[in-house]
Recover the amino acids of this structure.
């Protein structure tokens, strides 16, 4: 071996020695001789991993549930509006007053007509009764005339004459005409009475509707709530069906949210939940999800309803929601205090810390606590994870585990 090769070998040996020394210096070591009074007491959790849903922040609009539209029931003009948009109202409270003058005039005319019909009916019923009695009398006379004619016809020819026979026949004919006249009058009176009764029924119906219309000139609140919008002002002319007010119950609202289409297969109506992005975290449930994706649309139209008491929210307000999205991979929920530099957690194994590299997948919400979902190359299930926030944790640090 020449001198040049010896020099190269010596240099390589020196470099190797330096590298080994550096590695020995930087390698973390377990300080088994750490003083007892310097050992830190810490808290921990035992991690349970599964397919936990993660929370995704989305935005939605507060929409009233079943708004009450107040439409006019009559043709009239607006005399007075007692409430405006945004006002709070109580059930039974007067909101609008319409002009009732024409309705009152109509009622007077209908009452006069009913009185006139009643008078005609009374007269017709009285005349009918009289005609019935006259018919009975004329019928008796007709019967007697027939009997006299029959008796005269039964006499022998020696006691009959053509003139007398004609007299008896004329008497019968005359009585038949009288009976027919009274029958016709009875029919006329019966028809008149039927017609008047029908007209009275129609007029009474019109009067009842008029009284209902009169009541409908004073519009009252059907429910407790807020006037969302007013469509009229004093002096406006309204007709049946004209929109006047929209009333909503602020305690009956839902959140209309637009969810990115990428989450379509990760949501289920009735089971997927969300939480109000607020310290109280009121829970909501997915009630509706429009799965038809329009061309050019990147969002799905969805509705969430509150599962508990509805918080006080301004109608039309845009709020943020934390929506649970199913995650395909297994994850483990840990508190924020367990995560260091967004990439590490520490396992406590035999009172020593062991650094584990993790990946943050998102947030979840469980039993009133917001947790981070993490995953790692190694299985974290049932591992004891540090939850106390330490200033400078490292592998090998001894801790008192409670």
């Amino acid at each position: 071996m020449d001198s040049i090769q010896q020099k190269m070998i010596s240099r390589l040996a020196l470099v190797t020695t330096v590298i080994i020394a550096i590695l020995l210096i930087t390698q973390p070591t377990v300080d088994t001789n750490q003083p007892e009074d310097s050992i830190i007491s810490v808290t921990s959790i035992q991690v349970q991993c599964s397919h936990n849903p993660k929370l995704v922040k989305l935005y939605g609009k507060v929409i009233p549930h079943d708004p009450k539209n107040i439409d006019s029931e009559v043709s009239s003009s607006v005399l007075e509006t007692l409430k405006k948009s945004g006002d709070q109202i109580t059930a039974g409270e007067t909101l609008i007053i319409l002009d009732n003058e024409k309705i009152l005039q109509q009622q007077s005319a209908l009452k006069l007509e009913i009185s006139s019909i009643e008078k005609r009916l009374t007269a017709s019923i009285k005349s009918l009764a009289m005609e019935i009695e006259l018919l009975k009398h004329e019928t008796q006379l007709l019967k007697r005339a027939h009997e006299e004619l029959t008796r005269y016809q039964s006499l022998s020819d020696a006691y009959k004459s053509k003139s007398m026979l004609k007299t008896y026949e004329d008497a019968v004919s005359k009585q038949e005409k009288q009976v027919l006249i009274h029958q016709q009058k009875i029919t006329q009176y019966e028809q008149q009475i039927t017609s008047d009764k029908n007209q009275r029924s129609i007029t009474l119906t019109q009067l009842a509707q008029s009284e209902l219309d009169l009541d409908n000139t004073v519009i009252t609140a059907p429910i407790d709530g807020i006037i969302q919008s007013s469509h009229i002002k004093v002096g406006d002319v309204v007709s049946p069906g004209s929109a006047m007010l929209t009333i909503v119950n602020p305690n009956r609202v839902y959140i209309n949210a637009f969810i990115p289409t990428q989450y379509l297969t990760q949501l289920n109506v009735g089971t997927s939940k969300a939480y109000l992005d607020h310290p109280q975290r009121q829970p909501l449930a997915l009630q509706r999800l429009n799965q038809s994706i329009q061309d050019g649309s990147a969002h799905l139209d969805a509705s969430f309803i509150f599962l508990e008491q509805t918080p006080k929210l301004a109608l039309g307000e845009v709020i943020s929601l934390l929506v649970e999205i199913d995650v395909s991979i297994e994850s483990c929920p840990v508190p924020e205090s367990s995560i260091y530099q967004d990439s590490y957690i520490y396992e406590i194994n035999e009172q020593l810390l062991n650094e584990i590299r993790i990946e943050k997948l998102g947030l979840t919400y469980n039993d009133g606590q917001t947790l981070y979902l993490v995953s790692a190359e190694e299985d974290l299930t049932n591992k004891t994870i540090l939850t106390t926030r330490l200033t400078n944790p490292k592998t090998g640090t001894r801790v008192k585990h409670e």
